[in-house]
Amino acid sequence: MCTILMVMQHEPGMQSCLYSINPALPLDAMVVWWTLPCRRYIFWSMQFDLTLFLSALGLAFILESIPYFLFAERMPSILNTLAQQSPSNLRRMGFTGLLLGVLVIYLGQSF
What is the pTM of this model? Predict the structure, then answer.
């Protein structure tokens, strides 16, 4: 859950005011905030959700184990083929997987 915090400074030299849209969150819970004269900024303060983290970790274990369960006979040859790849090729494949994962998360959050 994200809490939207707004920092406002009305005139240069005046003290800053910190407003919280979520009244359950104390104002001193925001770690980093600053203001520039006569500007408005919105910051998101993230709270760690252990249930969501454990669900995501469990889903990662499920997705990682599917190929070993479905293709148990072919996995040794697939792993042998991967072991013969150059480090730069493995790095490219890993980076492609990272980009695809970030894209999936972005698309999932945008709906």
Answer: 0.51
